[in-house]
Amino acid sequence: MEKITVELCMGTTCFVMGSSSLPEFSESLSESIREKIELKHSPCMGLCKDQKYGKAPYVKVNGEVISAATPHAVAVRIRQIAEEQDD
Ligand code: FES
Q: What is the distance between the alpha carbons of residues 5 and 34, in angstroms, rounded to a whole number?
């Protein structure tokens, strides 16, 4: 089974911008998708120091940056990737 790596930034800037709510992303996902997720917590990813990545908080899903991340946005991207893997 192909894993989907989800990396949540736990650095100070991301925390101040609301990263503590991000683990809720999994609540709206099906059990079969949740089983594919490999969850990591990262110290500052260094993205908050560079405007080109948009706003904190940041999440990486399979290495792809989601800026101004919300639990909903993270869940949507994970579902897309899971569907692509099933094709
Ligand atoms: S605190 Fe999250 S990228 Fe710096």
A: 11
